Every structure is written in structure tokens, then in C-alpha cells.
Amino acid sequence: MSTDNQVAVDIETANKNLAETIRNRIQALPSSKFCIFRVPEKFRIDKEDVYSPKILAIGPYHCNNPNLKSMEEHKKWYLHAFLARSSKQLDDVVKDLRDLEQDARDCYADPISDISSDDFVTLMLFDGCFILELLCRYFDEVEDKSKDMNDRIFTSTWMIPSLRRDLVMLENQIPFIVLEALFKFINNSAAKRVYNINKIIISFFNAIIPTIEQAQAKEDTKGKHLLDFLRTHLLPSSQQVEFGSYVNWEYTKCVTDISEAGVKFKRRAHGDGLLDVKFENGVLEIPPFCFGESVTVLLPNLIALEQCEGYSDQITSYVILLDSLINSPNDVKLLRNRDIIDSLFHEDEKVAIAINNLCKGVVVNEFYYDLLCHRVNAYCRTDWHKWRATLKRDYFNTPWAILSFIAAIILLVLAFIQALFSVIAYYAPKNNN
């Protein structure tokens, strides 16, 4: 073989090797089914603890974290307990999960191709059974207070809140189709007790849902995973939203400013969920909400979820509205005095700071309260509303001020009558002459 031929063969071999290397590095576009994402890095700045689980790893993103290994033994115990609830054998459960494997993998936006088929199915089995057993046990405890839960999770006061917190992390999810596939094994005609999956989820997460009243499970609520389920639960039942048709979105001024301009605030007792904020006749009606982990953990993860592909900005828009209304402890105090914010220990400054930190780095495609803000701002710009608010604030702010004003009016009227009679008396004799 000539030197030229040898060089040509070497180049062709090198090209094939390079092409194979590149082929191994590229991949097709992600599936349109993906719904479980990594939190964007711009949101994690100074807020790592809001997005990273503390004691429990669920799914592939945190499964190798050595700091979360303490719950792995508990997953084994709960799998044993789960199988005891079921009339099926472990082989049947594994078979069903194996059939769902590709659909479940497609739910993860970040590549998890390095996890083998057996490892992935095992991960879904242990994590899914742990979640369902935990929810069922919690539901049993709530329904039957006398039931003895000889379980470290339930005898430790800090465990349930910590697990609840970790289970709403965006990166700590497994597909809902896995939970549904496992749930049917413990919810059949042969089961000792029949559960409703929506009810046991809402029962467990009620303490972290930011509504003041006990949340009621909606039978028609569906979810792609637990966090998505909670988001769907919080959305209004009616999806009809009246957007403003304005070139630039409008936001409101803070509560204190628009209150001085004449806007009144009222607790919305019978609205269509947490997001159902209304403005009519100068009254801004806001559904009441609790300040707690619902604000500091659940809402940031819901916002992070909506910042990912395929989601509308409804929760994010609600938080942007709160952020525009609340700038200081005085704003929080006014809303708390109207029974709109329920804040433990009256930590008004802490509430204001927490809400103001929720929207950093957020971008929305649609602001769902644009029309409402436009109407509020138009109301505030009307001079009559400002004058009436000033009159009420400066002259009718106490019962004594009102009485003083009425007394002044009476004195003014009496003085006018006296002056009138004096004029009449002055001219009356002249007319008689």
C-alpha cells in the first residue's frame, strides 16, 4: 500500500472515530412530556435552602446526596408496609413500573441516561411507595387520633414538617403516573381500607397550603407530580382571565399609598380560591393567606416551576401583585388588621422582606392582574377619591372628630340663621315705613 493510500485510510478512520465520539455526545431534543426540572441557577443565589431537600431525596436529582441517606432505611420499612397493604406480589408491582419506565424517564428535563433501567425502576418503587405509605399513615392518624403510630416519623415532632417541606421541592419529584400506578395496588376491592388519592394528598399538605381555611380536596384535580398537583389545586376553578389590552403592564403602588388615595381593603371570604383578587367600587378584595412555609418554601418552588416551559404565570402573577402591594411592615400591618394576612407573632417586617424576595429574577409572559392594576391606578388618580380619603383620614378618623365636625356644622348653620334674621330685622322696619 502506497503512502498516499495509507494516509487516506488513516484520515477516514480518524473521521469515523471523531463522528462516533460526537454521536455519543449528542442527543435528541427532550420529550415534550418533561415536567420535572432543575431550578434555574439565577433563583438559587442566596436561597439554596429553599430548593434543596434537607432530609429526604425523591427521584434521580438528589438520590446520590450523602447527606440524605438517613431516610433510605425508612424507605425499606415503608416498602414492606406498603406491600402488606396490597393484595399483589412485588413481582406485579415491578412489572407495572417497568412498563411505565420510559414515560417516567421522559418527565425529567435533565438527562438521567446514566441511571440503568433496573436502578431507575428500583428508585421509582422505593420513592413512590414511601410517599404513598406516608400519606396513608398521616391520613389514618388524622382520621383516628387514638391510633398508635409506632413510627419514628410520627413520634418526632419535627419530621412531618421537614418531610412536607422536602416533598414540595421542584427537584424532589417523581411523576404522578408512578404514584397512580402504585396507588391502585392498595386501593382495590380487596384492600382493608379504601383511600382517595386527592384527599390523602390535601390532608398531608394542608398545613403548607397558604389558605387560612382548611383546604378541601377537589375530585377533578390532576397533577404531573405532587408540586404540580398543589399548583393545580390553588388555581381558580374558572380559567377565564380578563387581561388588560395595554402596551405596558401596570402594577399598583403599595397598600399604604393606595389606601391614602381612597382604596379600601377587604378580606374576600367567598372567592374562587387564593388567586381570586377583585377590585370593585374602590374596594380591593383579597383572599386571606397564611404567612409561613407556604410563602418561604412552597411559593418559591411553584414560581420556579412556572418559570420552566409549558406553564402559565398565574401563581407568579399573584406573587408579583403581592410584591407590588407590600413594600414595608406598615403595608403588612394594614392587611393584617383587615384579616387578610395571618402572620404568627405579628412579624410584619419579616413578612414584607420574604414577599419582596420571591420575585427576584422572575420574568413572566403574561401578567394576570394587569387589568385589575390598571383599574386600581385609575381610581387612585381621580381627585375626588383622594379628597374624600383625606377628609375621612383627617376629619373623620375618630368618633370624637366626627362629633366635633357635626358640632361645627351645627354652629355654622346657627350662625348663618342668626345672621339671616339680623339682616331681616334690619330691613323689616324700613319696609314697614
From TrEMBL:
The chain crosses the membrane at residues 400-428. Keywords: Membrane, Transmembrane, Transmembrane helix. The keyword Membrane applies. It comes from the Eukaryota. Pfam families: DUF247. This is Uncharacterized protein. It comes from Stephania japonica. The lineage of its organism: Eukaryota, Viridiplantae, Streptophyta, Embryophyta, Tracheophyta.
